[in-house]
Specification:
Layout: E1 2-5, H1 10-15, E2 21-31, H2 36-45, E3 59-62, H3 78-89, E4 94-97, H4 103-111, E5 115-118, H5 123-128, E6 130-137, E7 146-161, E8 164-165
Parallel strand pairs: 1-2, 2-3, 3-4, 4-5
Antiparallel strand pairs: 2-7, 5-7, 6-7, 7-8
Length: 169
């Protein structure tokens, strides 16, 4: 089991391989369909610094944060998957979700030395490993707002790295 601490360095991201099992600790961003296009707009407008979080080395979890906890949503939804390349270019090192990504997305991850990890849909387990949470932006979106959570040993498996995917046949 590889222990990852956020923020993730370029060297650490480059060393991750498809099939590695990891536990992620530290602060991670949470966002999905509704918020990711807004986050991309902030990057485009140069206002992302207003969040008070440096995206370089960050992890983004494709999830909403609700009273029931957190659990992965499908990363291959249009609004989510189309955010992966630009977020990687902006410094995100690890995208956390579930499902198979398109070949173009896997290539974009490689180009930006970023990786994608799949996390099992185990909301109760993840809830016990989430130690802090707060809304960073877009509170009007409720559970789909951009959240910052602190985690301790989130389990995941690297699903795409170095131009390869665990879903390759």
């Amino acid at each position: 089991m590889i222990q990852l601490q956020t923020p993730i360095s370029e060297e650490t991201a480059a060393a991750l391989r498809v099939g590695d099992t990891v536990e992620i600790s530290g602060y991670i961003l949470c966002g999905r369909d509704a918020v990711l296009p807004k986050l991309l707009k902030m990057i485009e407008d140069g206002t992302v610094g207003e969040l008070g979080v440096d995206l370089h080395g960050q992890v983004i979890f494709h999830t909403a944060v609700s009273p029931a906890g957190v659990g992965p949503t499908s990363s291959n939804k249009l609004e989510i998957e189309s955010s992966i390349a630009p977020l990687s270019a902006a410094g995100i090192k690890l995208h956390l979700g579930k499902g198979e990504l398109h070949r173009e997305t896997i290539q974009a991850l490689e180009q930006h030395n970023a990786v994608y990890a799949v996390i099992p849909p185990v909301t109760a387990l993840l809830g016990a490993k989430t130690t802090e949470q707060r809304v960073l932006a877009f509170p009007e979106l409720g559970m789909e707002a951009l959240h910052l959570i602190k985690v301790d040993k989130y389990p995941a498996i690297i699903g795409a790295a170095q131009g390869r995917s665990i879903y390759d046949k």
